[in-house]
Every structure is written in C-alpha cells, then in structure tokens.
Write a structure and sequence with these properties.
- The complex is a heterodimer of chains A (about 400) and B (about 270).
- With about 400 residues, chain A is of the alpha/beta class.
- Chain A has a seven-stranded mixed β-sheet, with helices on both faces.
- In chain A, helix 4 runs parallel beside helix 7 and helix 5 crosses helix 6.
- Chain A is globular, with a radius of gyration of 22 Å.
- Chain B has seven helices and no strands.
- The N and C termini of chain B lie far apart (about 125 Å).
- About 5% of the residues of chain B have low confidence.
- Classes of the chains: A alpha/beta (about 400), B mainly alpha (about 270).
- The interface between A and B is large, with 54 and 32 residues.
Chain lengths: ~400, ~270
C-alpha cells in the first residue's frame, strides 16, 4: 500500500488556508472522484495539498483532505481554457506554489504518477511536467499522427502526449496559461483547447516528461472523427500560426526519446480495409480540393498510394509530414474554407492510420514508427519554413 | 375624238422625255430627307442619353474618389487607434479568421461601399434623365437599372453554390457515400438553378414561364436526388434500422449477460 508522500519543505511556509500544491480535478462521476480522493489521500500529506473539485463531495476514504469547490466548467474530455483560468485563480487565492491538474478518468492514473508530477515542479526547476503515458497501440492515434510530430518538430519539445489531459505546473506557468485562456474566455469559448507545451516553449520555461503507466482516456461525448479531428487540428494549427515568429527560428532538436513503451503491434487488419476504402473513395472524389492544397509531388504520392494493394499499403513518412505541413500552410493562407480544409484531411489521416497498422504488423513497434514519423516531420521543417515565408515560390 | 387622240399622242412622248430626271431627283430628295431624319434621330437619341451617361460616370468616378479618401482616412485613424491589436485581443484564436487584417477589411469595405453607392446613384441618375427623354424607347432601361442587383445575385449565388457543393462533397466522402460527387453536383445545380430563376425574375424576364420552368427543373433535381439517395442508401438505411432494433432489444433484455469484447476498438483520441 502506498504511503503518504510528504512534499519537500521550502523556505517559505504556506499561508493559513493555503497549500503548497493545488490539485484541480476536472468534472467526473462521483465514484471516479472518490477513487481519486483515495489515491491522493494515500500519496500526499493533507496539510500540503488543497483539492479543488467542481462538485464538492466529501472524500470518504480520507476525511482529512481539504477539498474546496472549484468554479464550474463545462465537462470535457480534455482540459479546457476554463480549467486553466480556474487553476490560476485558485492558486493565487491559496498561495499555491504549484498546480496539479487532473483530467477526466484520472482515477486510472497510478499513484506514483501523481507524486512524480508534483515532485517534478516542486523539487526540480521545472515549470511544466506532463505524463508520458503507456499508450495502447490502438489509442491516441491523432496524437501520434499529427499533434506529437508537429509539436516536437516546431517547438522542439520532447513529451509524447501534447494534448492537455493531466499535468503539473509552476505558479508562473499557471499565470501564463491563464493569460492564454483569457483570450478564449473573453469570447465565451471556455471549452477551447490550449497547448501547454507550445506555451512553455515560447516562454522559455523548462518542460519535463514524467513516465506514467497506462491510463484510460475519456472520449469525447460525440466521438465522431469527422468533428473532433478538425477541431483538434484546427486548434493546433491556430496555435502554430500564432507562434510563427517563435518556431521559424532554427532550434536544436530534442534528444531522441528512450523507448520506454514497447507495446505490441496492433491487430488492425479488419479496420484497415475500411480505412483504405475511405481513402480510395476520397481519392476519386476530393482530387479537386486536394489539388488546391497539395503540390503535384504530394498528389503523385497519393496516386501511387491509391494504386497499392492492401498488403503493400504504406504511406511514406516524409509524404505524410509534407501533407500535414501543406494543410498547415493552406490553413494559414486560407486557400479554401478552413472547415472544408480540415474535412479534407480526415481521409488522409485514415490512410496514415491504415499505413501505421500495416507497418507495425511487420516487425516495427508502434513507438519506433511514431519516432520515425516525428523524425520525418523534423527533417521536413525547412520545407514548411520556406513555404511559410514565400508561399508563392515555385513548388513542384 | 381625233383631237383627244392627238392630245394623248402628243403628251405621252413629253412625259417619257421628262420622267427619268424627275424620278431621280425625287428619290434622291426622299433618301436625303430620310437620312437626314435618321441622323437627326440618332443625334437626338445620343443627346438624350448623353447627360444620363455622363451623370452615371460622374457619380461613379466621384464616389470612387470619395471611397478612396474615406478608405485612406479610416486606415490612418484605425492604425492610430491600434484597431488590429484591439480586435486581436478581443478575438483571441477564434476559428474564423479572415485573410486580411481588420483595418484592411474596414478600409476595403468602406471603399467598395462607396463604389456601390456611386453605381446605384449613377444608374438612378441615368434612369431619371432617361424618363425625361420621351423620344427614347422604353424597353432597355429597366434591365439596365436592375442589372446591378442581378449581377450581385449571380455572384452571391455562385459563391453559395460552390460552398455548399464542397461542404456536401466532403461531408459525403467522410460519411463514405459512394455517390458523393453526384450529390454535390446536384446541390450545386439546385442552387444555380435557383439563382438563375431569381436573376431572371429580378430582371423581369420571362414572367410565369421562368417560374414554371424553375418549378419543373428544381422539382426534377430534387426528385432525382431523392431517388438516387433512396436507392443508393437502401442497404445503409436497413442496416441502421436493424442496429437500432438490436440496441433497443439489448436495453430491454437487462438480465442478459453482455458479450465479452472480442477486440480492442480503435481510439483516435
């Protein structure tokens, strides 16, 4: 059984009613909340932490935990702008040194992950600590295909899961995230996604990744890929566009990640057929739209891909990297309506997923392939920078 | 009698002798008169139209110049007020972001609003000058005056048709409908036919014939699409209904043990 983890002593004592660590919990069912309370009670000393939850339910496992009511935010499957704003507000009100934000289904996190996250920002000079989950080969595919490679290549950050689900951050990082969240809150868009890794990179803050075990991820209320993928990709593209002045400068690539997760290949044969069919249907129908976004070379690559047999269906990593970058450029240039643009990306993403499954069925572990994809994104970054600066230049 | 015949015989050669000269002179005279009158009419028409045309061009040029001045003033004033920064702060990273800066948009809108105003005033001036010129035919001007609205309708219709066609195409492809292109084409032509009917009605061309033709065409397209979608997605609908029935069955049979999941499903997020 885990024992209560006493947080390291600092020079300045916490103020009355305050806490060194503020733990903000996302909205979740009561039974999940009780499980999280039990885990927190096991690993943290009650005097060090203050828990804020949207609904105040007395913790049944450990009554000594201090729980306050957090402002209500709309339930979401990831952390939203409203969560970050609330975290900063509560951290300031209770003079917290750091904040631990836990997303939905946080009851499936290992207790050691909670302490590791807290220690990473309280004892080490880190401003942001994010978990490196042990993902199933069939989970988090949008993250593996787009979010992780783009974030790593452009912002030179290492963490494998840039989507905000769980994290710990310092007070100054909380202030920065709250500032970023305010732009959305002013427009009554509290459910908007923020990209903490990008914010930390731009601010020059220190980021670390804490190895976490497996975690069950909450799924969107309407898990329609055609809706969620454009939403996520659009949010990331907008953030990349807003931070263009930062990522265009050359940066040292992060060191290669150690392969902690050697998950087995996914058995996706039955699903890849449907994905390849979706891609081929799109290839026959969406050529007119893709030709507005993609250069002839990429279109040729897609033509070759559409002609491949199911067993040989592999999308080259550099082709995928260029496709994503071309869509990012089209987003910036508004070549076509942005809703249409991101809708046209969905079949290409499905083609990548099918290709990923085929690749991993032939001796390559999923993590190795995703690392290769990320490396391809890094290698193609000069192409993005060049076209970002001179979009009208001849591009074969 | 003899005297009468003698008179006739005497007069006839005289007439034959003088006729060519007299006829040529009369025709030339008549032609000259007709040409003069035609020329006079053309000049009169031109004179009647010219003030209207002049008024049209003066109004257009004047309002274009005013538009340029207003646009420049607005551009300077808004730059001084840091309008772009204020809008950026208010807007944040909203999904809809136009391709130009807010100042450029305001300046452009003000310029084109003035040009449009000049166009409308110019056409009205032309209309007024035309109405006073009674000699002009009354068949051309109504089309001219309504042509501005008709052109705007046509442009808007084309934009809407293209937007909707792309939306339907992408949505249908992502829903994996085999007839996606056909569906998009149908939607595009429905909007274009609707636009054409509106333009013709705006120009008051065709009257009831246009309405009738539009009704037949529109109805035909809708019927074709309905048949195509209905026949094409018959299997899809039946599968959907079957799965719904199965789900209802699962909900009602509460005591039945749930089958074990045989494979891990794909989680894209």
């Amino acid at each position: 059984m885990a024992t209560a983890h006493s947080l390291p002593v600092t020079a300045e004592p916490t103020t009355t009613g305050g806490a060194r660590l503020l733990i903000l919990l996302a909205a979740m069912p009561d039974e999940h909340l009780q499980e999280v309370y039990a885990q927190l009670g096991q690993v943290f000393s009650p005097s060090d932490v203050l828990i804020a939850a949207p609904e105040t339910i007395a913790p049944s496992a450990n009554g000594s935990l201090r729980v306050i009511t957090a402002p209500q935010s709309r339930p979401s499957w990831v952390l939203t702008a409203a969560d970050f704003a609330n975290a900063h507000e509560l951290a300031v009100a209770h003079s917290a040194e750091a904040v631990l934000l836990l997303g939905p289904e946080a009851n499936t996190l290992q207790p050691s992950t909670l302490t590791a996250l807290a220690d990473a920002v309280l004892t080490a000079p880190n401003d942001l600590a994010v978990p490196g989950y042990d993902l199933s080969p069939r989970a988090g595919l949008v993250n593996s295909a787009i979010l992780f490679p783009v974030t790593r290549a452009l912002f030179a950050t290492r963490p494998r899961y840039p989507l905000a689900v769980d994290m710990a951050f310092s007070a100054r990082m909380a202030a920065r995230m709250a500032n970023a969240a305010q732009r959305f809150l002013r427009m009554n868009q509290g459910e908007a996604q923020l990209w903490p890794l990008n914010e930390a990179a731009v601010a020059g803050f220190t980021v670390t990744e804490v190895m976490a075990g497996p975690r069950k991820f909450a799924q969107p209320a309407d898990p329609d890929l055609n809706k969620i993928l454009p939403l996520l990709a659009g949010s990331l593209f907008a953030d990349v566009e807003a931070k263009a002045a930062f990522w265009q400068r050359p940066r040292q690539a992060p060191p290669a990640r150690a392969m902690q997760h050697q998950s087995q290949a996914a058995d996706g044969a039955s699903d890849t057929a449907a994905m390849m069919q979706a891609f081929r249907l799109a290839y026959t129908n969406l050529q007119e739209i893709w030709s507005l976004v993609l250069p002839p070379n990429a279109l040729l690559g897609l033509k070759r891909l559409s002609l491949l047999e199911a067993s040989d269906f592999r999308m080259p990593d550099n082709l995928w990297a260029r496709i994503v970058y071309d869509f990012l450029l089209a987003w910036r240039l508004r070549t076509i309506n942005r809703g249409h643009l991101l809708g046209a990306l969905v079949p290409l993403y499905l083609a990548w997923v099918a290709s990923h499954f085929h690749t991993t069925e032939n001796g390559v572990t999923p993590e190795q392939h995703i690392e290769a994809v990320a490396a391809a994104f890094e290698a193609e970054k000069p192409y993005l920078v060049s076209r970002w600066r001179w979009p009208d230049r001849f591009n074969p | 009698m003899t005297a009468l015949l003698a008179t006739i015989l005497q007069d006839q050669p005289l007439q034959n002798a003088t006729s060519p000269y007299m006829t040529n002179a009369t025709i030339w005279h008549h032609m000259s008169d007709a040409l003069n009158q035609s020329f006079y009419r053309v000049v009169t028409l031109l004179i009647a139209i010219l003030p209207g045309l002049l008024a049209f061009f003066v109004a257009l040029v004047l309002f274009t110049l005013i538009g340029m001045v207003v646009s420049a003033i607005l551009r300077r004033a808004l730059t001084w007020l840091r309008f772009d920064d204020r809008i950026a702060k208010m807007r944040g990273d909203a999904n809809w972001t136009p391709s130009s800066t807010p100042i450029a948009i305001v300046a452009r809108v003000s310029f084109w609003a003035n040009v449009l105003l000049g166009l409308i005033i110019g056409v009205s001036a032309f209309d007024t000058s035309y109405a006073t010129a009674a000699v002009l035919p009354i068949s051309l001007l109504p089309y001219l005056t309504r042509s501005v609205g008709a052109i705007l309708l046509l442009i808007a219709g084309n934009i809407v048709a293209r937007f909707l066609a792309r939306s339907v195409l992408i949505g249908a492809v992502n829903a994996q409908l085999q007839y996606a292109r056909f569906l998009a084409l149908g939607v595009k032509w429905m909007v274009l036919v609707l636009t054409a009917a509106m333009v013709l009605e705006h120009l008051e061309i065709g009257g009831a014939v246009v309405e009738l033709a539009f009704g037949i065409l529109f109805g035909g397209i809708v019927l074709t699409l309905a048949l195509a979608v209905g026949l094409g997605s018959r299997d899809l609908v039946s599968r959907s209904l079957e799965s719904r029935v199965e789900r209802v069955g699962e909900h009602t049979a509460e005591s039945a043990p749930s089958p074990a999941p045989h494979a891990e499903s794909i989680q894209h997020f």
